From TrEMBL:
CC terms in the record's Gene Ontology section: plasma membrane
Alphabetized InterPro entries for the sequence: CPA3_Na-H_Antiporter_D (IPR050586), ND/Mrp_TM (IPR001750)
Keywords noted in UniProt: Cell membrane, Membrane, Transmembrane, Transmembrane helix
Compartments it resides in: Cell membrane; Membrane
Protein family per UniProt: Belongs to the CPA3 antiporters (TC 2.A.63) subunit D family.
The protein's name in its UniProt record: Monovalent cation/H+ antiporter subunit D family protein
Naturally occurring in which organism (per UniProt): Parahaliea mediterranea
Length: 492
């Protein structure tokens, strides 16, 4: 086994080893959380090594023995997976640091279980990122659903259990009804489940089969939250804020849209995808989703619910980008996976900090809070700008390429949808910190609390890091762009 392939296997082994340490040290919280931090640092270092090996032209892959004739588990590194793994492993580190402050500051129970399943979830994400065929992707995709369910129901109350039922019901239901049949039909029609640059299907494949398969894959990957299979995401907001950050930025939803991009590029290929009949109405469904979810978000007073529907909208951007079936669209999708990850995790970190420090959960309660929590609300403003796609934040570039993709295809209605959605982002996100800093009038000003009380230091440290990266990705997007540009599109 080469050293590079050893790194690939190590990326999957670190999380199980971390779980062992977390459980063994459950009675010593500082050591237990230290294991999580060290494991996340080790995983990020391994993924940096994988990235460098990829840049040097190394081929990193692994194959199991046959499970059934012709069916194997396969791992392989390609640019999109390397990007996803780097983002997830780095944000694991940041989220663990944040969680130390949040879980202790909020007095959460069952913290050992939380850190153990958090590590397991990241291990599953590595399997998704480095999957070499549809069978491996499906296996780790389902393991991710199951490993995050205990985190969703962490509180253990009736509301949490109901949210967990919706979460697991939608995700497993879409997988069984749509995703698994799509994989079986792909195997039946091609005799292979491998990811192939340029696509897996031969040119003479029945167009009706391809059209049906695209529908099955888009709805089957329920973690992408395409309407009407999006309800699991708002339902999961009953979880602690670090879990919400995991769901929205690090693992679950990103595994969904990552899977759709990978299927579009490596199963269909852009040339063949562009000719699929069902692609056009799915494109407009993505456009409807990003607008409708934005409108719903505007009406939500609960801060986490508003952020949840914002995520539904932003995921549709990624889905739309790959369905455009042009290089600019795929570039925009790849970049948006990264840009949204850092913007949205910052917003959830801020929401958790607000809860810990001020016990406020509703948007209507936040007016004037900028005086008490200026650091948190300033970070919320910058992250909101990134989600809206405005300078000086990284979201500017992903939305730039998505816009170019719609113009490349002449889909001006979708161009308009992206513009309107971005304007709605400004209304339902950016106005929150603006109002938090807004000057009070008369008696309100006299009564307004002025004592600064930020969240615990660990929370603020994590918020500072992710906010700084939102800005850095605007100033220095080139490394990220160059990695996304290496995705083999096979034409288009």
């Amino acid at each position: 086994m080469s050293d590079s392939n050893g790194l690939l296997l190590a990326s999957l082994a670190i999380a199980p080893l971390a779980i062992l340490g977390i459980v063994l040290l459950r009675s010593r919280p500082n050591w237990r959380e230290g294991v999580s931090v060290l494991a996340s640092i080790a995983l990020f270092a391994v993924n940096i090594g994988i990235y460098h090996s990829l840049q040097q032209g190394a081929t990193l892959s692994w194959r199991s023995g046959e499970i059934l004739p012709g069916l194997r588990l396969e791992l392989a590194v390609e640019p999109l997976g390397a990007l996803f793994a780097l983002i997830a492993s780095f944000l694991w580190l940041v989220t663990v640091v944040y969680a130390v402050g949040y879980m202790r500051g909020h007095g959460e129970q069952n913290q050992t279980r939380f850190y153990a399943f958090f590590a397991l979830s990241i291990g599953c994400v590595m399997g998704v990122a480095f999957s070499g065929n549809l069978l491996t992707l499906f296996l780790f995709y389902e393991m991710l659903s199951l490993s995050t369910w205990p985190l969703v129901v962490h509180a253990g109350n009736d509301k949490a259990r109901h949210g967990g039922r919706v979460y697991l019901g939608v995700l497993l239901g879409t997988s069984i009804v749509f995703f698994l049949p799509a994989i079986i039909l792909t195997w039946w029609s091609t005799g292979s489940l491998s990811f192939v640059p340029g696509g897996l299907f031969p040119e003479n494949t029945d167009p009706r089969l391809l059209s049906a398969l695209l529908v099955l894959f888009v709805f089957g990957v329920g973690k992408a939250a395409m309407m009407p299979f999006h309800r699991w995401l708002p339902a999961a907001m009953v979880a602690p804020t670090p879990v919400s950050a995991l769901l929205h930025a690090v693992a679950v939803v990103k595994a969904g849209v990552f899977s759709l991009v990978k299927i579009g590029v490596y199963v269909f290929g852009l040339d063949q995808l562009a000719a699929v009949d069902s692609r056009e109405w799915l494109l407009y469904l993505a456009g409807f989703t990003l607008l409708a979810a934005s409108i719903v978000a505007m009406q939500k007073d609960n801060l986490k619910a508003r952020l949840a529907y914002s995520t539904v909208s932003q995921l549709a951007y990624v889905t739309l980008g790959v369905l455009l079936a042009v290089p600019d669209g795929v570039t925009g999708s790849g970049l948006h996976i990264a840009m949204h990850a850092f913007g949205k995790i910052t917003l959830f970190f801020c929401a958790g900090a607000i809860l810990v420090a001020s016990h406020k959960t509703e948007v209507s309660q936040l007016r004037g809070l900028g005086r008490q929590m200026p650091f948190t609300m300033a970070a919320f403003l910058l992250a909101s700008l990134s989600i809206a796609g405005l300078p000086p934040t990284g979201g500017t570039w992903s939305k730039w390429f998505l816009m170019l993709g719609t113009l490349d295809t002449g889909a001006l209605v979708l161009t308009a949808a992206l513009v309107v959605s971005s304007l709605l982002n400004i209304v339902y996100l950016t106005l929150i910190p603006v109002r938090a800093f807004w000057r009070f009038d008369g008696a309100d000003e006299a009564a307004a609390p002025t004592e600064v009380r930020e969240a615990p230091l660990a929370c603020c440290l994590a918020i500072g890091v992710t906010t700084a990266i939102c800005v850095a990705l605007f100033l220095f997007p080139q490394p990220l762009y160059e990695l996304v540009a290496q995705i083999p599109l096979g034409g288009g």
